[in-house]
Design goal:
Blueprint lengths: L6 H41 L11 H19 L4 H22 L1
Helix pairs in contact: 1-2
């Protein structure tokens, strides 16, 4: 049985979620801008290179940082986030304590 949250607790939780989502969107926007610029630098240097196309080095930060973006998205939008797991563990422990108190 879950206890009802008061208005202040609900607002605090909602504010936290909004901040997390805004933080992720900012992170994603910076990722897209920077990696677009890196791609353009690679493209322009390849076009004007005397030997033709050069190694696509922009893929290293794209993939590496992309992994970080994926984990950030998972932590913000996943139904299995740390907050969800923490709340489930708290509820489980509260039920265990209630059963112990009732048995005494």
């Amino acid at each position: 049985m879950q206890q009802q949250m008061n208005e202040g607790e609900m607002r605090a939780r909602a504010e936290k979620r909004v901040e997390e989502k805004m933080g992720f969107r900012t992170h994603l926007t910076i990722y897209l801008i920077i990696n677009s610029l890196l791609f353009l630098i690679w493209l322009l240097t390849s076009i004007f290179a005397a030997d033709g196309w050069i190694f696509p080095w922009f893929l290293f930060p794209l993939v590496g940082w992309g992994i970080g973006i994926a984990f950030h998205a998972w932590s913000v939008y996943s139904p299995y986030s740390d907050e969800t797991r923490r709340e489930a563990k708290i509820q489980q422990e509260m039920e265990r304590i209630k059963k112990e108190a009732g048995e005494e």
